[in-house]
Amino acid sequence: MTGFNDPFVIARCLVNLLNPPKDAKIVDFGCGTGLCGIELQKVGFTNIYGIDGSHDMLEIAKTKNIYKDAWVCLVGLDPLPEALSVNCDIAVASAVMIKGHFPNTCYVEMLKTVISGGHIAFTIRDIYLDHATDNGMNFKDALEELEASGKIQLVKRERYVKYKGLAMGSGHQEEGANILIYKKL
Ligand SMILES: C[S@@+](CC[C@H](N)C(=O)[O-])C[C@H]1O[C@@H](n2cnc3c(N)ncnc32)[C@H](O)[C@@H]1O
């Protein structure tokens, strides 16, 4: 898929790589206006919840009838909604692991929503998995620490071209990116 393709990549990979039941409970972290929710809905998922730090983005998402419920929550600062406490099958996050968006504590937060044996799945650009180019965000170390302490296990890393076909300058041009899927142990 061309253009902003993170939501599409997440939905496709959940089906192709995990193939959970269509009523699996999924929480969309940083759901924004619901683009990832829409892609999840298109491939058949029916039990989707959303959280986002922006009230205005959520108001737009709510008009689309994607999420069974959605909450304003600034990941890394606010407590997560009680309704999402260790009862989700999958936590997804599309295009939020960027400086100025999610902190690297987001993985711990995502894991708080997921049952043991459940999964977290998210997109992240190559530059954010390299200390030399990650703007000090240190997502890589945060993931490696969780792996080393036996809390998560990598299920799949698949590479894709983000902003495929775009050439609109820095931040909106083709860039190497990844979808990472981890199992909660
Ligand atoms: C680039 S948009 C991506 C939206 C959506 N995931 C998508 O793929 O279309 C980033 C979203 O993350 C939200 N956001 C940024 N930092 C956040 C935080 N710490 N906690 C919750 N939401 C955050 C923003 O409000 C915005 O809706």
What does this molecule look like?
With 185 residues, this protein is of the alpha/beta class. The protein has one domain: Vaccinia Virus protein VP39 (Rossmann fold). The protein contains five helices and seven strands; from the N terminus they run H-E-H-E-H-E-E-H-E-H-E-E. It has helices at 6-18, 35-42, 55-62, 106-113, 139-148, and strands spanning 26-29, 48-52, 69-72, 88-93, 114-125, 152-167, 173-184. A seven-stranded mixed sheet has the order 3-2-1-4-5-7-6, with helices on both faces. Helix 2 (35-42) links the parallel strand 1 and strand 2. It is globular, with a radius of gyration of 15 Å. The chain binds S-adenosylmethionine.
Element-by-element helix/strand order:
HEHEHEEHEHEE
For the sheet with most strands, the description reads: 7 strands, mixed
Which ligands are bound? S-adenosylmethionine
What is the level 1 CATH name? Alpha Beta
User: How much of the polypeptide forms β-strand, as a percent range?
Assistant: 25-35%
Low-confidence stretches: none
The second-level CATH architecture is: 3-Layer(aba) Sandwich
Give the tally of β-strands. 7
Distance between the termini: 32 Å
Structural class: alpha/beta
What is the number of independent domains? 1
Strand order of the largest sheet: 3-2-1-4-5-7-6
H/I helix tally: 5
Question: What is the 3D shape?
Answer: globular
Q: What is the typical, i.e. mean, pLDDT?
A: 95
Helical residue percent band? 25-40%
CATH superfamily: Vaccinia Virus protein VP39
CATH topology: Rossmann fold
Radius of gyration computed on alpha carbons: 15 Å
